[in-house]
């Protein structure tokens, strides 16, 4: 089980490293936000969900997509903008969608996904389905009105939403203490009458346990708020000189690398051998290599398709 | 049967709720209060609070929740009290409802209906009286409809709910009390095409919403002067029924566009541009427009009346085209 968590995090790490490399090589364009350092959150939390549950994510969502089981090949093809991508190349890095995985987007408007999650949960309630909608967002979203409106609606109507706040301390370059008059995020959730919990977002087992407890409560029909205290090791996006945080702070957090921490723990417990670790690493390397090859082989959507799917139904002419 | 615009919409909502268990109505004061314009009065008792869902004053969240519920397989009717308040939900409508199908490569539809009141005429001043439907009509991915008749008030909702795409229904607030005859078996109507409400050969007046009735009034007056006006009700602002516009203008060769929105960057400008693009050599005179004055809509009645298009101004615009033709 824990080896599976390690593999899950390593897949994300290597996928993201490859994306950075491909970005520098000009193969990936647009904005690219890497999840490196935060892998424990997606892997720990999404592992507690069932295939029937729904996910709403942010523009830093490659990790969630991989943890959810969207094939790395389709995800990489999306990075390239190829029509074999999971959003048929239309969305790119920030807009990963997958109907089969019940993955309702990468949303690049901060806070914009929260009302959608409330609505998905509302549909489940009205249609008599016992599902969880897991909604991921960052500390930056907490400053948005949509966060407060959505928390209120979910609590007021007792809707099955698991609000997962990935608190990585920075809204782009603005430290949480420079953005929020009160940085106690649990207090904000509790102000809406919602049960709230916090966990070490650098510890995948801690995230898993906290998410499991929260998801069980959500499945019983009440919303929950879970703060995962985490940190992104890389820049906000590929255009970020990181003038807003000291290098020493980054180095301190890197000492708590979730992958290194779990690896050390597994080795200390004798749960995994060096050979097994090497095999996982080799598997992941192979998978990411295959994903890149798949994306490279992918095809461009014909320009004639440009306006397809703006509407599901074309209007009847007069 | 005799009915009102308000009752026709209520009948349409009731029928939708009866027919399809996925349908629900959500918005501010739609339940106990009965709707700000009393459209949903009585529905709470009939359908209960799960399906006639009072929402707190959080337009962005409940419109977004409507989008999410549509993604989740429900068929929400979201009521936003007026278009002025819908600006608080602009992000959800423009960045989510309008984009998700295309951005997801066609994987997800947003079969959502949003109803809202629009327009001036009740002395509600500059935060309750504007006509922003033209703004929404700018956005690909949305359908914008403007019922101006009892038939459309009764029939557009069912078609909009059946539609796989987000449809915004703009109900002009001066129309709710409009009375008239409606067939007992009135049912769904198309939401794609414009309709000629009065046929004529001299000048086309193109409009939508409540100004349709002012245009018809002007046409009556002009008929007494021997001027045969054709009145085209756009009905749907996006996608625009360009073919119907062209057919009418080809016939009359003169056109007046009436739009309660402001002139600058407006829907009327879009229609004028399309006519200029495709029918430049067919025209016997310049395209005329009657739009709202470029001011925030004022409170006093005489100023509000002066700010928005009225029948005499429409008639004057028509006469100016006829006069120009005669003079030449």
Please describe the structure with a list of short key phrases separated by commas or semicolons.
heterodimer; A: 318 residues; alpha/beta; Rossmann fold; six-stranded parallel sheet; two-stranded antiparallel ribbon; 12 helices; 12% strand; globular; B: 328 residues; 2 domains; seven-stranded mixed sheet; five-stranded mixed sheet
- The helix-strand sequence of chain A is HHEHHEHEHEEEHHEHEHHH
CATH architectural arrangement of the largest domain in chain B: 3-Layer(aba) Sandwich
Helical content class of chain A: 40-55%
Major sheet characteristics of chain A:
6 strands, parallel
Number of helices of chain B: 13
Q: What is the percent of helical residues of chain B?
A: 25-40%
Shape of chain A: globular
Q: What is the assembly state of the chains in this entry?
A: heterodimer
Biggest sheet of chain A: strands side by side, in what order? 2-1-3-4-8-7
Could you tell me the CATH topology label of the largest domain in chain B: Rossmann fold
What is the mean pLDDT of chain B?
Answer: 97
- Rg of chain B computed from alpha carbons, rounded to a whole number of angstroms: 20 Å
- Through-space gap between termini of chain A: 61 Å
Secondary structure blueprint with pairings:
The complex is a heterodimer of chains A (318) and B (328).
Chain A: H1 2-24, H2 39-46, E1 54-58, H3 62-68, H4 72-80, E2 103-107, H5 113-126, E3 133-138, H6 145-156, E4 161-167, E5 170-171, E6 174-175, H7 176-179, H8 185-191, E7 195-200, H9 204-219, E8 224-229, H10 247-254, H11 258-268, H12 274-297
Parallel strand pairs in A: 1-2, 1-3, 3-4, 4-8, 7-8
Antiparallel strand pairs in A: 5-6
Helix pairs in contact in A: 1-2, 1-3, 1-11, 1-12, 2-3, 2-9, 4-12
Chain B: E1 2-4, H1 5-19, E2 23-27, H2 43-47, E3 52-54, H3 59-71, E4 75-82, H4 83-86, H5 90-97, H6 100-103, E5 113-118, H7 133-136, E6 143-145, H8 150-162, E7 167-172, E8 179-181, E9 195-198, E10 203-207, H9 211-224, E11 229-233, E12 236-238, H10 242-252, E13 255-262, H11 267-279, E14 288-292, H12 301-307, H13 311-327
Parallel strand pairs in B: 2-3, 2-4, 4-5, 5-7, 6-7, 10-11, 10-13, 13-14
Antiparallel strand pairs in B: 1-8, 6-12, 9-11
Helix pairs in contact in B: 1-8, 3-5, 9-13, 10-11
